[in-house]
Give the backbone structure.
Amino acid sequence: MTDVPVAVITGAASGIGAACAWMLRAAGWRTAGLDLNESDTDLSVRLDVTDTGLVRAAVDGAAHRFGQLDLMVTAAGYYEEGIDVAAITRAQWDRMLTVILGGTVNAFKAALPHLLRRGSGGLIAISSELALAGSATDLHYVAAKGAVLGLVKSLALEVAHTGIRVNAVAPGPTDTPLLAQDSLWREPGYLATLPLRRLVTPQEVASTVCYLATEGSMYCGEVLSPNAGAVI
């Protein structure tokens, strides 16, 4: 074991995941990134988070290389907007749930044995403000992110006595490549409805993750939502 904390971040190549990896490294952490693309981390592993075996092998490899594991952050995902519920195909439902919920389950399952051996550490899932408030034209995405919240709350209860903390961050619309330039959430009319009148930045979401991982020792099964006032 070392004195340098170690984090694995899924979806670490861009957006919120990349911001989390950067901020944790700046704070002195070792980081491993799991993504379809190369990530700017101490250990970059290219994989699909829906592949249970590859995720487990990558997490085991990171823990072996760095001597321990202290944190898993699940930021991998994608977004589809502007689809009426009746138009969402079975394939779209299956893929969204497999990536967002299934990918989170795979990452948490791979990390848990390492955290249990230490009797400490954290699991932090990136959900969405839409899982708290709902949305009319991206139901499969909202349902998947809502399922992640259920997973977090239930797992937090299951492992709290072990010293492992499980929490979620549910950002509002965030200025990342996942949010298309013509997205509804970028329109001036929508931004005007937000008390802060702007999108959230990936760095703001990452700072929430870092807070939960370090100072937020009182949080268990909680959902912190940096959302510019979209949900109050």
